[in-house]
Amino acid sequence: MSSTTANPALEAPESLRPSDRGEAQFRSATRHSGRVRMLKIALPVVSLLIGAAFVGYSWLSSPVTIGFDLSSTAIRDGKLVMAEPKLEGYTTDNLPYAMTAARAVQDAGNTSVIELEDIDATVPISDGTTARIDARRAVYDRVSNTIQLNDPMNLSTSDGKSATLQSASINMAAGTLVTEHPVVIRINGASIDAGRLSVAENGKVIVFEDRVQMHLDPGRLNAERAGDAGENADD
Q1: d(Cα 31, Cα 16) in Å, to the nearest integer?
Q2: What is the pLDDT of residue 1?
């Protein structure tokens, strides 16, 4: 009776055996699914903050205090100019927010439009998490409930998220944001670069267009995942 001996040269390498390959694909898909879930949660939050920082006080509850030094207020070329105006108040969840600007300009013939320069705002995302936003210039139209940003704006949250926009048109009534210029968003081990961004339905729909690139840092993603697992175990 003859016996058959397997030829080692004809055996599939360990890395290509079906069972191992399937397991590797499963692990890869699981990691990808986790990243997608993270982005689907984080990106709407970042997008909504962009608009909320400047016109949030139109729908946030009172009390609201606006402070400025009357001695630094003047009429120039038919416009009311206020130096270092400050806006402070509380959200419906009783979380504090604040905004300051180097200057606010209001046209006497069109009081619904306010131009703010060198803006620094701190707004709450949730209890214990805040976002800081700084922008060179923003024009707020109270009638149309819109904001026009024609200069760069930076946003950073206390839990590590950040966004940089070169410009933006925000329609708070419609819940939309559109920028035709490059945008960069970074979220705990991942970043997205795009030439154009549009947001609809108050952040439920986010579309990146034009030279879209996504970068992932596996080491940081794994660290974040391990940290989340540890927190869940403690709970």
Answers
A1: 20
A2: 45
Question: Over the stretch 26-74, which tens digit does the pLDDT of each residue have?
Answer: 455 444 454 454 445 444 444 444 444 433 433 333 344 445 455 577 8
Residues 201 and 15: beta-carbon distance below 8 Å: no
User: Is 191's pLDDT higher than 60?
Assistant: yes
Distant-in-sequence, close-in-space partners of 67: CB < 8 Å, separation ≥ 6: 85, 86, 88
Contact 132, 156 (CB under 8 A): yes
Angle between helices 218-234 and 18-55 (to 10 degrees): 80
What residue type is 59 in one-letter code? Answer: W
Per-residue pLDDT, averaged over 128-145, amounts to 84
Name the residue among 58, 43, 42 with its Cα closest to residue 97.
58
Render pLDDT for 7-16 as a digit per residue (tens, 0 to 9): 333 333 444 3
